[in-house]
Design goal:
The complex is a heterotrimer of chains A (292), B (164) and C (797). With 292 residues, chain A is of the alpha+beta class. Chain A is 35% helix and 24% strand. Chain B contains five helices and five strands; from the N terminus they run E-E-H-E-E-E-H-H-H-H. Classes of the chains: A alpha+beta (292), B alpha+beta (164), C alpha+beta (797).
Amino acid sequence: MKPVAFKYLKPATVEEATAFLAEYGSEAKILAGGQSMMPMLSMRIARPSVLVDINEIAELTYIRAADDAVAIGSVTRQRRLGDDDLVAEQVPVLASALKCMSHPQIQNRGTVVGSICHGDPAAELPAVAIALGAELTACSQAGTRTIPVAEFYRGYYRNILEPDELVSEVNFPAMLPGCGWSVVEISRRHGDLALAGVASLVAFAGEEIDHVRIACFGLGKAAHRLVDAESLLKGQRTSSELFQEVASLVSSSVKPMDDSHASAEYRRALAAELTQRSLFEAIERAKQGAAS
Amino acid sequence: MNVQSDLDSRQVTVTVNGKQESLEVEGRTTLADMLRQEFHTQGVRVGCEHGVCGSCTILFDGEPMRACLLLAVQADGHEIKTIESMADGNKLHEIQEAFSEKHGLQCGFCTAGIILSVSELLERCPEPTDEQIYEILGGHLCRCTGYQQILQSVRLAADMLLEK
Amino acid sequence: MSIPVPFKSKYVGQSVKRVEDPVLLTGRARHIDDLEFPGMLHVAFLRSPHAHAKIISFDVSAASALPGVECVLTGAELKEETRPLNTMPGIASGWSGYAMAADKVRYAGEAVAAVAATSRYIAEDAAELIQVEYEILDAVVDPEQAALPESALVYENQESNVLFERNYTYGEPDRAMKEADLVVRENYRFPRVSGNPLETVGVIARWDSVADELTCWTNTQSPGGSIRGSFVNPPGRDQITAQPHGGSFGTKMGALLKYEITAALLSRLCDGRHVKYIEDRMEHLLASSTHAWDRRYEAEFGFTSDGRCTVMKVRLLNDVGSSCENSAPSMCWKPLVMLTGPYKVQHFEYDMAAVVTNKTPEGAYRGYGVPPHTLVIERLMDKAAVALGMDAAEIRQHNFIQPDEFPYKTPTGTEYDSGDYPAVLQLALEKANYEGLKAEQQRRRDEGRLVGLSVVFGIEPGGVWAMTGPFRDWLGGMGAINPESAAISISAEGTFDVELFYALEGQGQPTFATQIIADYFGVTMESVRVSQSDARNPAPSMGPAGSRQAVVLTFALIGAADKLAARLIRVASNLLQTPADQLEIADGSVQLKGGQGPTLPLGQIAATMTFRPDLLPDEIEGNPQVTYTWRANRPVDTEGSPYLSYANACHVALVEVDRATGQTSIERYVIADDCGTRLNPAMVEGQVQGGVAQGIGATLFEEYVYDEYGQPQSVTFADYLMPSIYEVPMTEKHAFVTPSPLTALGVKGTGEGAIHVTPAAIFCAVNDALAPLGVELEHANAKPERVWQLIQQAANI
């Protein structure tokens, strides 16, 4: 299990990185935290001829407040989601996501943006980013564009980035005041990728659900939002009948895959269960938030 | 297919267990391989080479990480600690002593990585809860002990370090 | 043949710290991959992507031309130089391939060619450049289909894929089944699992054809082997040095041979340079010949109306994978030594068959086939209890062999040494507050929750000493002894050097050896140093296997100590001018029995032997070093037991199954076990807890999955799921001690006990949880989806 030989490049700035990407295009792979890339290299599933290592780009390590949002640079490690005050205050759902994810030893190196870009269908952060309405900033020599994470994926491990583009930042809109949240999943072992998972955000206006975002993972070729389920909930008062209706809608609408750990049929059943658990938890948090 | 092995070598300067060294490494060499072969810190045990087992865990700028999931070239300018840094000559570190006291190891292959992870935990968090201990041990597979005596060892290590 | 404790025990019986720990804790143990030699080459294999295919041709030109590559060896070339891999004694030949596939591949991952290069990186680059043309054949995947006459053949030289069929009938099982008041039956499957130590298998070979000598360094757990017989033109002599290993659990025995052979040939082809091969993890999972217990069972037990089990019929079909190059067949027959478990049952039929398929060959794994057998017995006891309206604990108490019946002869002729099963079960129930757990279970069941409680019992054969009794006819009637040796020397400073004849294994043997020798001579543990013998100076040793070291090494150590003590006393007798029979060893000295008179420190005696042999008469051997080889003084015949000790344990587990997801969580896990005298209780607890973790792995997480084409689906640690700390319960362990009358110090083997019983505990508890739904799990791996499917089934009934 040793990687194929490649040309190793270590840009110090975003400008240098995008210049390398412009030069090598699809021959190059970007190495961020490497916690998914390195196994693929060692198994020779990934066989790049050029590796552009962005870890030493100092300007990409940050968590900072933006307009009603938290901006996270693409070399920021996942572990920081658990100990950053701004995250805890503005987007606490990210810290909850972290608790479901892998292990500290992986999170110390793995990056937030790397996980979103890698787009493992069973990973937590892409779904949470979609639920939050997060956006990616992609840079190339041609310029910079903003891509909502919800529009980023194109099927199994595919996305719409051009070969010469580097994602420099993810921007998470701050959660609404009083917004409850939840990330729940079923995995075989603690810290494994999920067999299925659901992230949700719920805010109330009085007794009625005013704002709701639900996204799922492990239940299709990529994480995605469950818009129909959201529509059923918006403007409604909570009830177990409503949740069951939402759960069965989710279960019938998702298109999970079969693998050696779980069949699509089982994943659909988990989808229904997890939708309910997630909504319960998010609503519980929303109510606590309102009470406090 | 690209199979030229000498395609890209680089000079790196790395501090391993307090000692700085410069050397040439190939781009694709993993950090685990460099530490074992060039620095002879063979306590870096390679168990799976895909980041799951945790045997090769080292401290990279003070934080536990998998040496199999880093390239050697990425250590350039960074500081690495391996199990070889823990004991003071023949005197075991308190954490090592606690593992010995509580039988927190059998074959010992996973132990070096665990001790390094635990050392970072106890530095950050001198009175850890079981939840915090589980969180850090969750990143290590041990096939011998069933973890119970490891858990007891970590609790004892925390006590020993507090009393120090 | 009870051996009295020959010393005051200061250390034996205490949870002293392990003497090997400092080396392990500092990372200084020299594992196989830590050895470096000048000019050493590294091996990578090209492995077959197909489960079953003919090899049409090899083209190695591009690989050979790669800079850094010293040699490329194909399976076809290897075949010319070597003999087929071992077939188990007792099994007809022709059921295994060579160290690499030559004409045909029989499992996905089988090596077809090997490269030796200046680095592993380059070797892997080159392996990819080897072109192999295959003609794909139908893969034999399902073991039941494999046994049918129309199945494709894994070995064309054989008439079918059935490796063997044997029937062992004791008493009159058919009649007893007819007469039974209650018959319970079920089919079970056990998942394909393996030991998966964190260190994989590795070898370094140096074949110097000028010196006519082959030297191998490996991480074998079985010392002293020779592989000369594997070669058409063997080296004049060979020697295998074992390095400390990072776990083995049976995987580091026969699995090494194919790698030793290949590395050795490559070394010979490279002018005797050292050649290293370390399996990577994917290769280990894919192709290490260490998978185990891919089994299907049909079982049927008969009971009287008052709950006495009268007859057991167990039919086993074992899928051994593509070859019997490792020890898979003998894992089918090990249960013969404990066929009825802890129960008194006179009628038994054990019908076993093994088939070959296009999967990775099976090999040894801790427990050696007993865990699935125990699971079958325990689950059917539970089923009978339910049918008879009895409690799980009660039906077991009702059938136990009683304490006054030891030594107890089982139907197969093996003899259980000692025990008190009712008391062990009672201890577990009391410590678990069994009645309280039952009440708790009922309370939660009333809320509609799926809560399961199990009480299971298991027997652990330990101290395997010979291939005797029911094992004998498998070896062509020859039998064989499994000896163990120890060497001790004493220095002029009065310190002791003890040598063991196998490598550091992790189970603490150097520690209990230190404890025993220190106590024997009345010195401190610091005065005793234990190390591994030099491979050039071997003594007969089987090494760790079959829960044997606590038993056999203790025998060997005490035998060696007796021999050395006799010699020291003889010298002392001469120096003190006192008859030897009036002298004894105590507190590191020779003294007059009863403690009166002068004492002579042992170091001074050793000094005299070393530096002033002129003071001693010629007939006294002046060497302060002895080697002793232990072998049981028992007949190797068709009667008797291959194992000397039979430890036993009761496990009580409380689990809850999540109705919505099928996930099982373990809430309480209580163990009472009797492994006789505990040399070091903390080490025993470590063995038990480690076995629990592996048992939980097998029943809730781990499973090698193959698709319908024989393609393995579990080739990374993201797919073969070994439990982490979150998945393993912190168990409550309680000791019950019935010393074995057959072993030194009364010890019983204990390395495998918990993995024998844990699968049954989890399986029975999950089934108990599902009982209110009227569904039953037949697959011993209760992965969430399997359990969920059953819950769905129940909902649709």
